[in-house]
User: Fold this.
Amino acid sequence: MDVSHNTFSNGLLYIGFNQDQGCFVCGTENGFRVFNCDPLKEKERHDFNDGGGLGRVEMLFRCNYLALVGHCGPRAKYPPNKVMIWDDLKKIAVIEMEFSSTVRSVKLRRDRIVVALETMVKVYTFTQTPQQLHVFETYPNPKGLCVLCPSSTNSLLAFPGQNAGQVEIVDLGNTEKGSTTVAAHETSLSCISMNLQGTLLATASEKGTLIRIFETFNGTMVNELRRGSHAALIYCINFNHDSSLLCVSSDHGTIHIFAVDDHKKNRQSSLGVSFLPKYFSSKWSFTKFQVAGNAPCLCAFGSSDPHSVIGKL
Assistant:
């Protein structure tokens, strides 16, 4: 998440979790830092000798490779149209990838590098000289929305389709069978997320009132959850490790927790009768909590306790 406009004057430009949310990484005005989530502990720090900020840093689980992208402001370490694969054991960039436009996001798995640009997603081999395998056109995607299943047995990739509110799901292990198109929302997407197993996809639109959950193998909607009645910017959606819970953070300064598989846990209106609008039969979060100072944040569940929630500025 881009936090370059935060009000704390702390030099923080970017923050993001790794694939299993066990770690998070911070891009700063001088380099990057890696932290373990639970217990909270700094695991790695690298400040560039010549300075230079990073607008995006993507981890690959807990291994020594990270994807680094500069930013559009002053003192950027790299141009915003380049992806540098950093080897933290050697303390050097070992792969350099240049594009014709600004890089909006990067996703990694052990065999693939996925780069989201404004109107396309490109897939490469994760090799010393990356080879382009696929190019998928998207609806304008300034946030670089894209999610790559981290499972070694599931190589699904999800990204915005070519129309507003659509999500395309592609199996990178079998692209010949075509993609699954999910008509998730009527307006543009603001957030997409996949569970660790790659079986469920959660989406939110720029309106931010509803979270919808779909099965990835056929695009069927299996759940619709209501965050609130007023529009909100959704920062983050994450499943817990067994996909029984879902957490959502927004610019209202709240983190909502929903039950995914036991709907009775979620709050429901007592006015849920058939002739009333759908709003009155919505499934609301069973709990929520306020973020100090209404700061923008990401949220995820702890790995040791599947019911613990971790929030990060």
